[in-house]
C-alpha cells in the first residue's frame, strides 16, 4: 500500500472534511482529510483507476450533502 496525497480545492469547513472522510471509508479506503492544508491522504495501490474511483466517490458524496459544493476540485 502506498500513501496517496490529493489536494482538494474548495474543502473549507469541518463538514467538508467529515463528508470526505466518510466517502473514503464507504469506498473501502483508509484515509484522513486535513482542512488546514486542504489535503486528503489515503492508502491504496495508487493506480489511475483507483484514483478516479476515490475522486468520483468524494465528489458524489460532497455534492449529495450540499448542492452548492460543486466548488470541490482536485489538483
Automatic annotation (TrEMBL):
GO molecular function: metal ion binding
UniProt cross-references to InterPro entries, sorted A to Z: HMA_dom, HMA_dom_sf
Native source organism of the sequence: Leptospira interrogans serovar Pyrogenes str. 200701872
Protein name: Heavy metal-associated domain protein
